[in-house]
Amino acid sequence: MTKYVGCIDLHDGKVKQIVGATLSNDDNDNNDNDKNNQLSTNYVSSHSPKYYAELYRDNKIYGTHVIKLGPNNDNAADEAIKAWPNALQIGGGINLDNCQEWIDKGADKVIITSWLFPNGELSWDRLKLISDKIGKEHLVVDVSCKKDKQEENVWIVAMNKWQTLTNTKLSKELFNKLGEYCNEILVHAADVEGLCKGIDEELVNKLGEWCCDMKDIKIVYAGGAKSLEDLKLVDKLSNGKVDLTYGSSLDLFGGNVKFTDLVKYNNDNNNL
């Protein structure tokens, strides 16, 4: 059954909620008011990463991912991991050279995306290398995507903070092969990320279809969730195969969806 999982998005060392489609792949993108990069920020928290990690820990929100959106976030990510060691996932700039370092620091899993796509092509050799190095049980593959503007019901993996389209399309075949190297797949729907206008129902339905036979693989969808009812909708559309995370719509980040309601949903449905 679908459950709620948490997120801590970091930008320039602070916990923020950002409209995904407005992120820049410029590593110097630190200024929310920079008219050149037109970054749209929904929320900047006055609380530390530690605060959120402890909140998720105390409410047993397992599978929470910490995403570093650009530079100057390593210390913030490290602070979150120390608050809940061996439980959180860390993503953003992960590669073969630093993956073990984050596991050693106390991350339960690392989330890998852009490094897997040199020149926009998915490298199965790279995926095997990193999986062999840390073990598939510690690896999440992020195939966050944008909808193909030319072809209906097609989503293309986007890298570099969702600004660069790769040559990889989401499919059942892709997910089955990815499952040989990891035990979790994360999918941000970048087109609706941070807009709080509803999930991409077609994508969620497809995710459930593509992963229906993958018994040991966890699938997490992010993007657009705006109400408690979206948990039930994702459960219905995916036949319980896909979990859901909330960002800008959550009251923890200035939204209207109550964190306590999501925790209660998980508890009531025995999804601990």
UniProtKB/TrEMBL annotation:
One of its GO terms (molecular function) is 1-(5-phosphoribosyl)-5-[(5-phosphoribosylamino)methylideneamino]imidazole-4-carboxamide isomerase activity. It holds the Pfam family His_biosynth. This is 1-(5-phosphoribosyl)-5-[(5-phosphoribosylamino)methylideneamino] imidazole-4-carboxamide isomerase. InterPro entries: Aldolase_TIM (IPR013785), His6/HISN3 (IPR011858), His_biosynth (IPR006062), Isoase_HisA-like (IPR044524), RibuloseP-bd_barrel (IPR011060). Its EC number is 5.3.1.16. Pathway: Amino-acid biosynthesis; L-histidine biosynthesis; L-histidine from 5-phospho-alpha-D-ribose 1-diphosphate: step 4/9. Keywords: Amino-acid biosynthesis, Cytoplasm, Histidine biosynthesis, Isomerase. One of its GO terms (biological process) is L-histidine biosynthetic process. One of its GO terms (cellular component) is cytoplasm. The lineage of its organism: Eukaryota, Fungi, Dikarya, Ascomycota, Saccharomycotina. Residues 22-41 are annotated as: Disordered. Belongs to the HisA/HisF family. It comes from the Eukaryota. It is found in: Cytoplasm. It catalyses: 1-(5-phospho-beta-D-ribosyl)-5-[(5-phospho-beta-D-ribosylamino)methylideneamino]imidazole-4-carboxamide = 5-[(5-phospho-1-deoxy-D-ribulos-1-ylimino)methylamino]-1-(5-phospho-beta-D-ribosyl)imidazole-4-carboxamide. PANTHER family: 1-(5-PHOSPHORIBOSYL)-5-[(5-PHOSPHORIBOSYLAMINO)METHYLIDENEAMINO] IMIDAZOLE-4-CARBOXAMIDE ISOMERASE.
